[in-house]
Amino acid sequence: MQTAIATDIETLLKAENLKKGFTLHTQNGIHLSVLSNLSLVVKAGECVALTGASGSGKSTLMRCLYGNYRVDSGSIWVKHGGDWVDLTRTEPHQLLAIRQTTIGYVSQFLRVIPRVPALDVAAEPLLELGMELNEAREKAAQMFARLNLPERLWSVSPTTFSGGEKQRVNIARALLVNYPILLLDEPTSALDATNASVVIGLLQECKAAGCAIIGIFHDEEVLTQVCDRQLSFGSSH
């Protein structure tokens, strides 16, 4: 049983004293320190933007918060099903459960299985939660319509989609579940102004519903309209 942490009722994620580095074995074992004593608290209905130069550690932090990278030291506490869980000490099966219901992640790239229709790609997380196929597809269709994804593409595999079309499938897939915590890696990078505006509206709805958002946003419009504060990273090491 992991020890509970002292925090207020609105906090959904609390990272403390994170350290993360990489050893470059192909370059004489050089060690690069990327995150050093980084701490972060994010509350329900709050959006924190990670800002700083390329290579300063923003994406590394995102991957640590999603459990793709294990930190060298520190803790990442998330509110999962009413309990506090330290991601740095979770077993693989527990991490999968957290990703199913608690933490959603929109990366810049959509990984898809060939021949699976876009509608089913977006509906998959709902099916994993036990929703009936027809209902999951209907919810995915409604989200696709909001995101202006042409209906002719819904039954097609996203492997041939443009970058902006793939990004909208990725966004739909994450927003359908109503995760308490959302990690967003440049969610509007491939979108035109009209569709970026739609995504801004959707993210504002997520915040209003109590979602805690952490993101990398290079779009000033998103920063201005969605983010409450920024966590700045220094230059790369």
From TrEMBL:
The keyword Transcription does not apply. One of its GO terms (molecular function) is lyase activity. Pfam families: ABC_tran. PROSITE patterns: ABC_TRANSPORTER_1, ABC_TRANSPORTER_2. SMART domains: AAA. Keywords: ATP-binding, Lyase, Nucleotide-binding. InterPro entries: AAA+_ATPase, ABC_transporter-like_ATP-bd, ABC_transporter-like_CS, CP_lyase_PhnL, P-loop_NTPase. Residues 13-234 form the ABC transporter domain. NCBIfam families: CP_lyasePhnL. Belongs to the ABC transporter superfamily. PANTHER family: ALPHA-D-RIBOSE 1-METHYLPHOSPHONATE 5-TRIPHOSPHATE SYNTHASE SUBUNIT PHNL, LIPOPROTEIN-RELEASING SYSTEM ATP-BINDING PROTEIN LOLD. This is Phosphonate C-P lyase system protein PhnL. It comes from Symplocastrum torsivum CPER-KK1. The gene is phnL.
